[in-house]
Design a protein that fits this description.
Blueprint (H helix, E strand, L loop, with lengths): L10 H80 L2 H12 L18
Length: 122
C-alpha cells in the first residue's frame, strides 16, 4: 500500500510554516542566551572557589608553621630553664671547682686525673 501525500501550499500553510520557523528561531535564541548565562555563572563561581582553595592551603601552611614554632619555643624554653639551673649551680664554689676539674682537667698539685666517660657533673 503506497500512500501518496499531497501537501497543500496555500497561504494558511505558508503562514503556519513561517510561524513555526519563527518559534524555532526564538527557541534557539533563548537556548543560546541561557547557555551564555550558564557559562557566565560557572565562571563567576570558579574564581571564588579558586580563592577559597588557595586561602585554605595558606591556612594549612600557617598552622604547620605555628606548630613548628610552638615546638621550637618549648625546646628553647626548656634549654633556657636548664641553663638557668646550671648557672645557679655554678654559683656554688664547690660545684664550680668540681665542674672545672672534671671538664677542663684541672688538678691540684700531686693529683692524677683519670677520665671516665659520662661522669661529668651536670
Amino acid at each position: 500500500m503506497v500512500r501518496n501525500i499531497v501537501q497543500l501550499n496555500n497561504r494558511y500553510i505558508q503562514d503556519e510554516n513561517q510561524h513555526r520557523r519563527y518559534l524555532e528561531q526564538e527557541k534557539r535564541k533563548k537556548n543560546r542566551f541561557m547557555g551564555w548565562v550558564l557559562i557566565l555563572v560557572i565562571l563567576l563561581f570558579i574564581l571564588p572557589t579558586f580563592n577559597l582553595v588557595q586561602s585554605y592551603q595558606n591556612l594549612l601552611k600557617h598552622r604547620a608553621q605555628l606548630t613548628h614554632l610552638q615546638k621550637k619555643y618549648e625546646e628553647i624554653s626548656n634549654e633556657k630553664e636548664s641553663q638557668k639551673a646550671f648557672a645557679n649551680k655554678l654559683k656554688n664554689e664547690e660545684y664550680a671547682a668540681k665542674y672545672a676539674r672534671a671538664k677542663y682537667y684541672y688538678s691540684k698539685k700531686g693529683e692524677y686525673i683519670y677520665t671516665i666517660p659520662g661522669l661529668l657533673p651536670q
